């Protein structure tokens, strides 16, 4: 369903008024907190204008087991950097958090000085993802359904309809990962249409037509990937850190770190293409994992666990153009790349999140919304470790995973986002 711009107008302005009081209250609270952290004139005279390393060490939870292999940043230096960021924002006044665009991130210096390709963003080397040759695999349907369908009472019906769907689709041509003779591919379409074979067949035909019109099958082998690899650092800001406790991929996404004003300045056609590029990489990665699992008589890798970190979410996400962009991306993915999500765990949702979520909900299918859970800060680590091994959770979220650089959010795997440089924005407008 594509919502008219008039609907966005009607929803946007009332909600802005609705959250204004909360926004001002939050800004005042943050300002007061900043003032408490800001060094006083008396402190300056005594020579202590920032927390000493010993002060930080005395309040830390203890050394990381990975600290010996993380020489780039020490725990104390990261705390000092964060202290400096808070002090500088205090000097801007009570609207600093809004003017800054997003809350300070400890990876900002990394983003400014070391922008490069996130090679392992999708779990495998990009060369392997780009060169993958798709073909139908005669996977055991019963075993596949047992893995993909959690409700045991529905498995027999799903299996029967999947076999019917396969007979109906066997003469359709393949296009990249969309192989109509492959039961795993067909199961995605069947589940996306609530096991209605006729509707699933119509969706499959529609996707094949869409792929031909948009050249999606050529995205990985033929498109100019240099542009997309450069843009990948900023959007989409996610990365695959390993497998969850079921043996399926786990992805961490830093939505709150997106440069929304920068994104809306990019050419919409490029944004659409980059969305396709990312989705094709994800499905290629899933196929690589599937083939490796099948060699071990496993049928895992059908769907992903996605953890969405909302730290840094702000009013720029409620911009009309940003909402239009969200609608565009969500429809491309939901309509043409079905059933890649097993569960979505939203963490660190700030005060403004409920208002933004209410606006964005209509952009997503009911089945997708049912997979979303919003977790309180106090329960975050417990919930994450219930589904994901601690070694595959970034240290910043309570796990043990750190990058070779020593940053707690594994920026060598998880694209950090951040402000999009003007030359990158200009690149999206070039042919």
Automatic annotation (TrEMBL):
Q: Where is the composition biased (Low complexity)?
A: 57-71
A single GO CC term, please?
A: cytoplasm
Instruction: Give start-end of the signal peptide.
Output: 1-29
Question: InterPro entries in the record, alphabetically?
Answer: CRAL-TRIO_dom, CRAL-TRIO_dom_sf, CRAL/TRIO_N_dom_sf, SEC14/CRAL-TRIO_domain
**CRAL-TRIO domain boundaries:** 242-405
Q: What Pfam families is this protein classified in?
A: CRAL_TRIO
- Enumerate the residue ranges of region (Disordered): 39-80
Q: Where are the transmembrane segments?
A: none
Q: Which UniProt keywords apply?
A: Signal
- Quote the protein name from its UniProt record: SFH2 protein
What gene name is listed for this protein?
SFH2
């Amino acid at each position: 369903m594509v919502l008219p711009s008039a609907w966005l107008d009607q929803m946007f302005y009332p909600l802005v008024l609705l959250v204004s009081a909360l926004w001002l209250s939050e800004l005042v609270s943050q300002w007061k907190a900043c003032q408490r952290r800001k060094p006083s004139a008396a402190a300056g005279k005594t020579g202590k204008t920032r927390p000493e390393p010993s002060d930080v060490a005395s309040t830390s939870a203890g050394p990381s087991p990975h600290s010996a292999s993380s020489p780039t940043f020490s725990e104390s230096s990261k705390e000092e950097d964060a202290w400096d960021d808070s002090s500088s924002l205090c000097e801007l006044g009570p609207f600093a958090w809004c003017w800054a665009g997003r809350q300070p991130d400890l990876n900002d210096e990394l983003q400014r000085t070391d922008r490069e390709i996130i090679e392992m963003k999708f779990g495998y080397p990009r060369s392997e993802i780009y060169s993958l040759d798709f073909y139908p695999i005669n996977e055991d349907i019963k075993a596949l359904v047992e893995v993909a369908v959690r409700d045991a009472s529905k498995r027999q019906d799903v299996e029967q309809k999947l076999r019917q769907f396969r007979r109906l689709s066997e003469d359709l041509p393949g296009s990249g990962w969309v192989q109509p003779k492959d039961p795993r591919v067909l199961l995605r379409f069947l589940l996306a249409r609530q096991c209605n074979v006729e509707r699933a067949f119509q969706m499959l035909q529609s996707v094949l037509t869409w792929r031909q019109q948009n050249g999606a099958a050529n995205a990985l082998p033929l498109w100019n990937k240099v542009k997309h690899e450069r843009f990948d650092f900023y959007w989409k800001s996610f990365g695959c850190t390993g497998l969850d406790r079921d043996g399926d991929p786990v992805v961490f996404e830093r939505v709150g770190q997106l440069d929304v004003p920068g994104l809306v300045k990019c050419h919409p056609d490029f944004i659409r293409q980059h969305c396709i590029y990312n989705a094709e990489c994800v499905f290629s990665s899933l196929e690589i994992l599937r083939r490796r699992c099948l060699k071990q008589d496993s049928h895992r890798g059908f769907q992903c666990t996605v953890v969405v970190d909302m730290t840094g979410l702000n009013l720029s996400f409620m911009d009309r153009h940003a909402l239009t962009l969200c609608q565009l991306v969500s429809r491309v993915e939901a309509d043409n790349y079905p059933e890649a999500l097993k569960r979505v765990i939203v963490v660190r949702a700030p005060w403004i999140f409920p208002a933004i979520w209410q606006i964005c909900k209509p952009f997503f299918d009911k089945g997708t919304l049912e997979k979303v859970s919003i977790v309180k800060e106090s329960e975050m680590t417990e919930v994450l470790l219930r589904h994901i091994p601690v070694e595959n959770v970034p240290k910043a979220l309570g796990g043990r995973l750190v990058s070779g650089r020593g940053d707690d959010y594994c920026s060598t795997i998880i694209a950090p986002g951040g402000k999009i440089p003007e030359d990158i924005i200009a690149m999206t407008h070039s042919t």
